[in-house]
Amino acid sequence: MIAMNIAHTLLAPAVALMFASAAAAQTSGELPQPPVPQQQPQPRVDRKVNPDMLLDRLFGQLHQAEDVKTAQVVEKAIWGLWSQSSSPTANALLGQAAKAMAASNFRVAIRLLDTAIEIKPDFAEAWNKRATSYYLDGDFKNSMADIERVLELEPRHFGALSGLGLIKREQGDQEAALKAFRRALAIHPHLPAASRAVKELESEFEQRI
User: Fold this and answer.
1) Are 178 and 198 a contacting pair, CB within 8 Å?
2) Of the candidate ranges 10-14, 151-155, 167-171, the one whose mean pLDDT is the lowest
3) What is the mean pLDDT of the chain?
4) How much is the average pLDDT of 80-101?
């Protein structure tokens, strides 16, 4: 397991945002309520609608969002859907893991998520939370493996793609990092941290030329 150095410790808050937005730090497993522009009402999550169809609709709105505040409203609805599976037990374990992560008890979170994944192997957000926990615990190898599984289950997971970019950047693979961040922004154009990373990486490449 890779030891966590000082730089990694300082990056930890940003990592939680990149992998799972503020959801990883919330005991409810959801993002805090962002300001809602008057002209853009908050998307309502109608449980009677097929979740996959609703996600498709929300991702369309996310890509078309004209500003960060509007995008945050849609993003919250997406995280809300991602945080729910058809298994109440797996959902409860995800919530407990989020609390453990907020308390920096990453090993505890990993064990809880191990069980959630055993119960519900196709629960993409359980894999994503475990990828985040592994990363924050300094285990890049297992984090990468879980990210791959997240993207197999949900290719549009901008949090996992941003996490992939972070890992690749820390490993010195700037080209792969830039590709991952660009993929995240192609799905969610209003990700401030990913946008900054792309600008920094592009600047680094320009300086080499």
Assistant:
1) yes
2) 10-14
3) 83
4) 97
Calculate the alpha carbon distances from 51 to 82, 93, 179, 181 in Å. Answer: 9, 21, 29, 26
Query: Measuring CA to CA, which residue among 99, 192, 100, 184 is closest to residue 137?
Result: 100
State the Cα–Cα distance between residues 179 and 201, nearest whole angstrom: 10
pTM, rounded to two decimals: 0.78
Distance of CA 28 to the CA centre of its chain: 15
d(CA 52, CA 46): 12
204, 141, 124, 192: which is closest to 162 by C-alpha? Answer: 192
Tens digits of per-residue pLDDT, 42-79? 445 455 668 889 999 999 999 999 999 999 999 999 99
CATH 1.25.40.10 fits 6-159, yes or no: yes
Q: Quote the CA–CA distance of 59 and 136 in Å, as a whole number.
A: 28
